[in-house]
Amino acid sequence: MRSANIQGMASDLWKDFWAGGDEIKRFAEANQLAFHRQQYDRQWEEGGALPGMIFRGGERRDFLTWGEPIAIEFGNWSSIGSELEQAFGYVAVRHDLGLPHLIIDARANDATPPPGSWFYASKSSYTSLSENYYGSESASAMDRVRSKTERLDLGPEIDSYFQAYCDLGESAAARAFLTPERLQMLCAASMEFDIEITSEWIYLYALGITISSHDADRWAWVLSVTSRLVDHVRSWSAAAGKEPAIARPPFYADRTVPRPADLARLPTPSPG
Fold this sequence. Notes:
Layout: H1 6-30, E1 34-41, E2 58-66, E3 72-79, E4 87-94, E5 102-106, H2 141-145, E6 149-152, H3 156-159, E7 162-167, H4 171-177, H5 180-189, E8 194-197, E9 201-207, H6 216-239
Antiparallel strand pairs: 1-2, 2-3, 3-4, 4-9, 5-7, 5-8, 6-7, 8-9
């Protein structure tokens, strides 16, 4: 204890949990976003605020919302009480188009099996959506939906980018939605995120990356990615002959901003 920098530790905690929160709150106000410090989410069957696959038995912290009802949300989520804490940054955009449920499990953030993994529970893949303690899929995001989904075979070229899953018996509807243009968009997005599409929302999941942060370059990238996602949602509405469910937000970015250098290397899960 004598050699520990207690004053420095206290200062860092203050910055992260209080001053940092105020900084994000001012950023939110400047961009017409509502700031929320923390919210505990129970299982989605019990009324979790967002119906995405990761939002179960955890908490969202420092998340920002836009629209009434909420049309866009940025935040950080972490599990509570599981074997190993799982933490994702996420972007959620509402579309209200009644689309088929799709899960895009990206290859870019997969991990190779750790040394000695034969000793642990067997797994078909080591991905950010199925990461958990000792190689087990218990309580992982993918494990919660696996019994309700089926794998979509989209050919070797698409499979090199991601594994796709849809609800049982919904493969025809999923394939009808996955036009070549949409597959191209999902391939590009899967280089940085896992993706989930539900009947009302599209989510981008980033394992181990803080989306709602104090970093200006990271926010420029996040808002650029979100703006492109808004463009796609508006295009899907037009293709369905509907008015866009979402307007261009005040923070809409016309230009594409590259991923910040400090995020150049994607984090990989390390089960086991």
